[in-house]
Design a protein that fits this description.
Length: 291
């Protein structure tokens, strides 16, 4: 429907799709075949105008379409083996949990609205540190058009699923005739002491770090890793990077700590934003300032 001129899209969504779905639920085989044939005939008879529409249109993808796309990917690849995502050491830095697509859209939408300087349309590079099965990486590329979208994940099972989701993502982009932005996963790798990943981090415009379950020392190591970020970079975290009532010391300044250069906004999500609770969660939009 996304790739059809409006008149045809209306015909498909108001006539053919309802006939297709009601035939499935009522077990009406003839009705089902009829709906499929009607659809095929519509595409066949209008091939030239559909191609012209796809080529000429500059239309952007709707949020609904992007979320459906991501959901299909997830249902096909992750859902059948999701029990494996629970295989981590409890209360460790490797606890698994996901930000849901609606929440990621809200966060990115907020960054987009903040002003010209930080408009996502002009942003190039996104990276998720601890990217799990890669959901946010695909969403950044698909829905927000980041030219380069990276993920790094250390654990084996989420990495396997992320790699499989990437193959499916590329196939689906081809199927829908979508231009793919560059997506790259650093699977089964740590973001610490990883020079290639560090280069990508330093070039990022938006970094996501779901540090909800990370402990104090781990968060401090992450802060150290951010010392070369460029002004304007936005870091989204679920726990604060800058400790409460923080005052920078001369020692930290000498070490080039980023803490004194972060402008922090504490935000609260809508309910149902994350996979581990329905309760709203806090999140932090940290923006790197000039020295
Ligand atoms: C809470 S999950 C977040 C998944 C995804 N980013 C999301 O928000 O939907 C945190 C992930 O960080 C990963 N992780 C922890 N330490 C890591 C490290 N040193 N390098 C890469 N990934 C790491 C964990 O294995 C886990 O999958």
């Amino acid at each position: 429907v996304v790739n059809l001129p409006q008149l045809l899209a209306v015909k498909v969504s108001s006539e053919i799709v309802p006939k297709f779905t009601s035939s499935i639920s009522s077990g009406d085989y003839t009705g089902l075949v009829d709906a499929i044939e009607q659809y095929n005939a519509l595409i066949r008879d209008n091939r030239a105008s559909i191609l012209a529409y796809v080529k000429s249109s500059q239309h952007t993808l709707s949020t609904y379409f992007c979320h459906q796309f991501l959901q299909q990917l997830y249902t096909r690849i992750v859902t059948p083996q999701c029990v494996k995502l629970k295989r981590y050491k409890p209360f460790s830095n490797f606890v698994y949990g996901e930000l849901l697509p609606g929440f990621v859209s809200d966060i990115m939408g907020y960054i987009q609205e903040r002003g010209d300087a930080t408009r996502i349309g002009s942003l190039q590079n996104f990276m998720d540190l601890g990217s799990g099965v890669g959901n946010t990486v695909f969403q950044a590329a698909l829905e927000f058009g980041f030219r380069n979208s990276y993920g790094v994940e250390i654990m084996e099972h989420p990495s396997d699923m992320a790699d499989a989701q990437l193959l499916e993502y590329l196939e689906k982009c081809k199927l829908y005739g979508l231009k793919e932005n560059h997506v790259e996963l650093f699977s089964r790798q740590s973001f610490f002491d990883n020079p290639v990943v560090k280069d990508r981090i330093d070039a990022s415009d938006v970094l996501l770090c779901n540090n909800y379950a990370f402990d104090y020392d781990f968060n401090n190591r992450i802060v150290d890793m951010f010392k070369d970020l460029k002004p304007g970079t936005t870091i989204i975290t679920l726990k604060p990077l800058v400790p409460y009532a923080f005052k920078i010391t001369a020692d930290e300044l000498d070490k080039g700590s980023i803490l004194g250069r972060l402008h922090v906004q504490k935000m609260v999500s809508k309910p149902g934003a994350v996979s581990w609770t329905n309760t709203p969660v806090y999140y932090y939009v940290n923006t790197v300032q000039e020295d």
